[in-house]
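Severity: low
Component: inverse-folding endpoint
Summary: output formatting inconsistent between runs
Steps to reproduce: submit the following structure tokens with default settings.
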């Protein structure tokens, strides 16, 4: 290992420790009674976030497409200690459903302290073969509904000095094969909410924005797609969910989970050819 590489690695370690050392402490009591809307909460990371918020004694509204599954999640949230656990079925590809979900939460909770945007639409894990209509539909679900719900909830979040939590992906910072439509939606999220964060800060808004960049998480839907195709390690959904919640509660602008995803995002600018080689070799593909 060359001297320059050692210096770079040492600098990264120091920077990482400095960030961890200066990060605000999470106070679990701050979430007791907090009014929270979590999208995509019938399974995966969203479901795990609902359970964590319940353990902290929050008031929760959860939404996804499947009403029966939402009912089961809400019942479990109540058993875990949620002060309230309500649900509303919503299809985020429908023009009116994003507003409907926010209106329901505001009515039932009397306001909103956290809007956690986590839902995604299904997308194939394969080479892109020109399906423009699917990409348009996925952008509607994964991106446009996010900004629609944000606008609908922004006044309430301003009143409560609330937090907007956006669940994004490493794929929104580093393109990878087989996920072109999905990647495009995550890049859009990062760009829009990054810009909105600047605007809110310039207006001295009470609302914080946390953009959460996640690596591969071991949800059923993700593992079903990548099993046997990639050697990239997956990390637990419950731990990812808890880190997302802590990031929103402490009003930090960014989360990288697992932590080394932050370093990975830097390599594409520092050593792009090597990064591209590693990405492509991480997947099994025969033309």
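Observed output (run 2 of 3):
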């Amino acid at each position: 290992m060359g001297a320059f590489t050692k210096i770079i690695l040492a600098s990264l370690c120091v920077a990482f420790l400095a960030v961890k050392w200066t990060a605000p402490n999470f106070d679990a009591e701050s979430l007791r009674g907090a009014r929270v809307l979590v999208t995509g909460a019938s399974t995966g990371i969203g479901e795990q976030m609902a359970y964590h918020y319940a353990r902290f004694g929050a008031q929760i509204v959860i939404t996804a497409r499947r009403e029966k599954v939402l009912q089961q999640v809400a019942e479990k949230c109540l058993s875990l200690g949620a002060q309230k656990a309500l649900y509303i079925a919503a299809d985020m590809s429908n023009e009116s459903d994003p507003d409907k979900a926010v209106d329901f939460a505001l009515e039932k909770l009397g306001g909103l302290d956290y809007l956690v945007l986590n839902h995604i639409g299904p997308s194939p894990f394969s080479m892109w073969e020109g399906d423009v209509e699917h990409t348009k539909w996925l952008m509607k679900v994964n991106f446009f509904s996010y900004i629609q719900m944000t606008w609908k909830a922004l006044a309430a979040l301003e009143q409560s000095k609330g937090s907007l939590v956006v669940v994004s992906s490493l794929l929104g910072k580093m393109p990878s094969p087989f996920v072109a439509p999905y990647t495009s939606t995550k890049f859009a999220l990062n760009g829009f909410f990054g810009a909105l964060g600047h605007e809110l800060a310039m207006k001295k808004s009470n609302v914080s924005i946390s953009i959460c960049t996640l690596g591969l998480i071991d949800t059923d839907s993700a593992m079903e797609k990548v099993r046997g195709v990639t050697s990239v390690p997956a990390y637990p959904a419950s731990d990812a969910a808890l880190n997302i919640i802590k990031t929103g509660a402490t009003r930090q602008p960014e989360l990288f989970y697992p932590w080394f995803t932050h370093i990975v995002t830097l390599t594409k600018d520092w050593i792009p050819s090597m990064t591209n080689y590693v990405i492509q070799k991480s997947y099994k593909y025969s033309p």
